[in-house]
């Protein structure tokens, strides 16, 4: 402040007068296009004289992109705006520009889809090329001189933008994409302030793609990203391009719904508002939302998500990039389950009175009642079951609590009564999800990845497309969206492969990177040990497990399973629930309630009034995954953390805090009262769980296990997930998921 | 006697403003009466310029300027020469709101509270979840 400001104030008008190019009309400056600006040649000539700067400042690649050279000899050098970059052979001009830190505007180009080159927005000027070049489709050649900010490139893009906007409706104020629209953003840079188009705009009939994707086809700019996504990633041939010229439109060839479990991703990849989320339509604007980076818990993949919330309400869920797990896609169940978080919520502690009705009570009373009953029963009659959606902290607290009560009958639902928790390799996806891309032969045993873990299925499909990998499948008839060989329905086929009688055995044995994926649904079978040892025999014979390659995988079903087995949630006796007097269900809604004896005292701690509450004597309301901080380990042993996006509902509390409070009321106070302290406790049990955002592979392979002597039964494998859209208490409470399962599941 | 009371002549005894208005009314032209009963007078001769339009409120004991509806406001304040009755014809039928006087200082029941205010009787429900109802159990 002071002299400098005064000086600049005094200087400014004078300098404007002197610098103005035509001082005659500096008073009434209007926005006019000067003739010299309209001719790119002349303005390029004006720009030419200044010599290119010798030492350019170093540039950072767009979005921190890193270049990986598969073969150092194939590196070529190109010049982007005079700045030399080294790129591997085969990269496109657009990718070279990204490495050089220049973001090229684009609509049709998407790094995970094939190149279409039909939007023409990415035009750049290349020296010695007579016309502007579509950079997304042009391979970079050695010594190429690419110019991205010349008047020719700008004028070309402005022309393209004018054509795109010609038939684009002017409904940004009522468009759900408004604020996150590529066309809106890029028209700020390349759009004209007025139109020259006076004819009628084209209009296109909207298509019905089902309950998830809303279409406003008039807004479509025919980038064909959705068509390429559907055919390449989702593996359904539902979408296509019909007509030519101005009659060109995206549609399903015949009137039908989009039946893919990944269909929600077309909402993200659509650069305009043609495909938007139907449940989110007109609910919020994207700038009102608070994004919280979190983890999905509806399956065992642990997809990275961003929970967008407004106030106390989750408005939508969108994917987050994680190359190791979900790339940039998520399944429809992950994306659209959020309305289940607002329905059927438990918000007050309740006690069932003598008349069989629930009464709302205070936490103090509810905890006192439970603590009293827990002390009245014998320790071996206490049983705890952790639910599908439990986080590691709460399972740790529950196990510690039950152990202090003298019981060790605690397990996580879905892992069976006799889980193989001794060796991590026995229940993890040892190849890792990203590692599946190297495989060339898959053997799926009793698992249907398309419904059990849609993101893993997308990886398998990607591998099948890229490597022509062969897929053999043992299990009930199913619809996998890639070419596969249905080998059989049950253990019979497995035995044949193990005895090298089956033709698929030679395929497996000759493979360079064979992968066997066993479904976690088999954990519930009586003869699970024998089946697993048969699979291990196959793995040994076909050299699936080698020092440099571990292709023996288990695909888990639930978000809690891996952490539960890491923490040792293994029941002491297999049929403890039949003789239980005190059952603690921590979000467990899929336990067989008929097995619980009638006189047992059941405590249900959870966030939804789903199945088990109707059997409960006391209800403790807890927080859902969107409301708490919790560690989840996914099926490949990748520990991740959720973050609270919205406040808890009503009087609900975090799961581990409830158990900690109960332990204090019961007089066996657990020694932790902060998140850090309970994580320190987890570190002593399973240190890999607190190494967040890191995959901890299993150290020992399964070959150390003693052979099983159980008799194998020949009953065929069953469908584990009956309905992809409704698997847990959140998705069962969701209206959107109910609609999806009514309309989209195959009858 | 009852008529005298109704017209506010009795209130003139304690209220000098009303008495002044009543005296002013003598010889003035009654231009119109609005739906609340406020009477609008005009007298062009023999009054100081700027005091030639005035209102006698229908409410004799508790009157204030916010009781003048919007359509008469313009005439009363020399914004326009169109009377309120003429301007009322221009008022949109479908979405034109009824005039409401300012109730400040008249108690909480009369005061405007925004939709989220704790004292707003038509308070919006900010609960964004639907709780589980233990009816079936």
UniProtKB/TrEMBL annotation, chain A:
GO terms for cellular component: membrane. Residues 38-66 are annotated as: Disordered. Residues 74-152 form the 2Fe-2S ferredoxin-type domain. The keyword NAD applies. The keyword NAD applies. Its cofactor is [2Fe-2S] cluster; [4Fe-4S] cluster. One of its GO terms (molecular function) is metal ion binding. It holds the Pfam family NADH_dhqG_C. Residues 289-345 form the 4Fe-4S Mo/W bis-MGD-type domain. InterPro entries: 2Fe-2S_ferredoxin-like_sf, 2Fe-2S_ferredoxin-type, Mopterin_OxRdtase, Mopterin_OxRdtase_4Fe-4S_dom, NADH_UbQ_OxRdtase_75kDa_su_CS, NADH_UbQ_OxRdtase_ferredoxin, NADH_UbQ_OxRdtase_Gsu, NADH_UbQ_OxRdtase_Gsu_4Fe4S-bd. Residues 49-60 have a biased composition (Pro residues). One of its GO terms (biological process) is ATP synthesis coupled electron transport. Keywords: 4Fe-4S, Iron, Iron-sulfur, Metal-binding, NAD, Translocase. Residues 152-191 form the 4Fe-4S His(Cys)3-ligated-type domain. PANTHER family: NADH-UBIQUINONE OXIDOREDUCTASE 75 KDA SUBUNIT, MITOCHONDRIAL (PTHR43105:SF13), RESPIRATORY NITRATE REDUCTASE (PTHR43105). Belongs to the complex I 75 kDa subunit family. This is NADH dehydrogenase [ubiquinone] iron-sulfur protein 1, mitochondrial. It comes from Quillaja saponaria.
Automatic annotation (TrEMBL), chain B:
Coiled coil: none annotated. Belongs to the complex I NDUFA12 subunit family. It comes from Quillaja saponaria. InterPro entries: NDUFA12. GO terms for cellular component: mitochondrial inner membrane; respiratory chain complex I. Keywords: Electron transport, Membrane, Mitochondrion, Mitochondrion inner membrane, Respiratory chain, Transport. Transmembrane segments: none annotated. It is found in: Mitochondrion inner membrane. It is a peripheral membrane protein. The keyword Mitochondrion applies. The lineage of its organism: Eukaryota, Viridiplantae, Streptophyta, Embryophyta, Tracheophyta. One of its GO terms (biological process) is response to oxidative stress. Accessory subunit of the mitochondrial membrane respiratory chain NADH dehydrogenase (Complex I), that is believed not to be involved in catalysis. Complex I functions in the transfer of electrons from NADH to the respiratory chain. The immediate electron acceptor for the enzyme is believed to be ubiquinone. This is NADH dehydrogenase [ubiquinone] 1 alpha subcomplex subunit 12.
């Amino acid at each position: 402040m002071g002299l400098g400001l005064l000086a600049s104030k005094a200087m400014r008008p004078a300098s404007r007068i002197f610098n103005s190019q035509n001082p005659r009309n500096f008073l009434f400056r209007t926005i006019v296009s000067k003739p010299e600006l309209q001719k790119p040649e002349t303005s390029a000539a004006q720009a030419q004289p200044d010599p290119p700067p010798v030492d350019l400042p170093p540039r950072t690649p767009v979005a921190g992109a890193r270049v990986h050279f598969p073969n150092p000899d194939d590196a070529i050098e190109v010049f982007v705006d005079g700045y030399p970059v080294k790129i591997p052979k085969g990269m496109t001009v657009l990718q070279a520009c990204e490495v050089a830190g220049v973001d090229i505007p684009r609509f049709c180009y998407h790094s995970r889809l094939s190149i279409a080159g039909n939007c023409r927005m990415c035009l750049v000027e290349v020296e010695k090329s007579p016309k502007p070049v579509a950079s997304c489709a042009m391979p970079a050649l050695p010594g190429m001189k690419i110019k991205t900010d010349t008047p020719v490139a700008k004028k070309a893009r402005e022309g393209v933008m004018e054509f795109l906007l010609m038939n684009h409706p002017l409904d940004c104020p009522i468009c759900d994409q408004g604020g996150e629209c590529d066309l809106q953003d890029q028209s700020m840079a390349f759009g004209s302030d007025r139109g020259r188009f006076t004819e009628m705009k084209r209009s296109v009939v909207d298509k019905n793609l089902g309950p998830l994707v809303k279409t406003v086809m008039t807004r479509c700019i025919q980038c064909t990203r959705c068509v390429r996504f559907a055919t390449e990633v989702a593996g359904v041939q539902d979408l296509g391009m019909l007509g030519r010229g101005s009659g060109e439109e995206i549609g399903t060839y015949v009137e039908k719904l989009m039946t893919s479990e990944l269909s929600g991703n077309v909402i993200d990849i659509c650069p305009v508002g043609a495909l938007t989320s139907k449940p989110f339509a007109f609910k919020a604007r994207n700038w009102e939302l608070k994004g919280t980076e979190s983890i999905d818990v509806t399956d065992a993949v642990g997809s990275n998500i961003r929970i967008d919330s407004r106030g106390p309400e989750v408005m939508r869920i969108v994917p987050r990039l994680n190359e190791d797990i979900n790339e940039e896609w998520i399944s429809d169940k992950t994306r659209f389950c959020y309305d289940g978080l607002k329905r059927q919520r438990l918000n007050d502690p309740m006690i069932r009175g003598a008349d069989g009705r629930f009464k709302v009570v205070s936490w103090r009373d509810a905890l006192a009642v439970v603590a009293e009953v827990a002390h009245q029963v014998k320790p071996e009659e206490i049983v705890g079951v952790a639910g599908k959606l439990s986080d590691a902290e709460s399972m740790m607290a529950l196990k510690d609590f039950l152990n202090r009560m003298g019981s060790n009958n605690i397990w996580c639902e879905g892992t069976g009564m006799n889980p193989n928790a001794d060796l991590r390799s026995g229940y993890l996806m040892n190849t890792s999800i990203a590692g599946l891309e190297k495989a060339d032969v898959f053997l799926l045993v009793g698992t249907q990845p398309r419904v059990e873990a849609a993101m893993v299925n997308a990886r398998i499909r990607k591998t099948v497309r890229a490597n022509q990998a062969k897929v053999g499948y043992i299990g009930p008839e199913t619809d996998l969206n890639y070419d596969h060989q249905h080998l059989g329905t049950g253990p019979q086929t497995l035995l044949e492969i193990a005895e090298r009688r089956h033709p698929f055995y030679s395929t497996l044995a000759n493979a360079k990177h064979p992968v066997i994926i066993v479904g976690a649904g088999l954990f519930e079978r009586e003869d699970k040990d024998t089946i697993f040892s048969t699979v291990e025999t196959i793995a040994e014979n076909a050299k699936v497990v080698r020092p440099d390659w571990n292709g023996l995988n288990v695909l888990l079903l639930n978000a809690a399973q891996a952490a539960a087995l890491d923490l040792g949630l293994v029941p002491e006796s297999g049929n403890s629930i039949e003789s239980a007097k005190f059952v603690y269900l921590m979000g467990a809604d899929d336990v067989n309630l008929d097995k619980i004896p009638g006189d047992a005292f059941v405590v249900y701690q959870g966030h939804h009034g789903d199945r088990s509450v109707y059997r409960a004597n006391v209800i403790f309301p807890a927080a859902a995954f969107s409301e708490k901080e919790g560690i989840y380990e996914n099926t490949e042993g990748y520990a991740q953390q959720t973050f609270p996006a919205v406040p808890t509902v009503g009087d609900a509390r975090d799961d581990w805090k409830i158990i900690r409070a109960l332990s204090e009321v019961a007089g066996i106070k657990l020694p932790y009262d902060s998140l850090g302290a309970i994580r320190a406790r987890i570190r002593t049990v399973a240190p890999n769980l607190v190494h967040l955002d890191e995959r901890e592979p299993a150290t020992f392979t399964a070959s150390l296990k003693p052979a099983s002597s159980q008799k194998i039964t020949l009953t065929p494998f069953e469908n584990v997930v009956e309905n992809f859209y409704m698997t847990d208490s959140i998705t069962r409470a969701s209206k959107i998921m109910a609609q999806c399962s009514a309309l989209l599941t195959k009858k | 006697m009852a008529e005298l009371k109704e017209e506010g002549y009795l209130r003139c005894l304690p209220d000098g403003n009303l008495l002044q208005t009543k005296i002013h009314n003598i010889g003035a032209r009654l231009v119109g009466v609005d739906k609340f009963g406020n009477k609008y007078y005009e007298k062009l001769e023999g009054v100081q310029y700027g005091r030639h339009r005035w209102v006698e409120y229908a409410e004799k004991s508790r009157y204030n300027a916010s009781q003048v509806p919007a359509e008469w406001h313009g005439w009363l304040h020399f914004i326009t020469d169109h009377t309120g009755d003429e301007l009322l014809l221009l008022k949109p039928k479908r979405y034109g709101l009824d005039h409401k006087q300012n109730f400040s200082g008249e108690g909480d029941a009369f005061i405007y509270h925004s939709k989220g205010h704790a004292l707003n009787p038509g308070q919006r429900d900010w609960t964004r979840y639907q709780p589980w109802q233990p009816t079936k159990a």
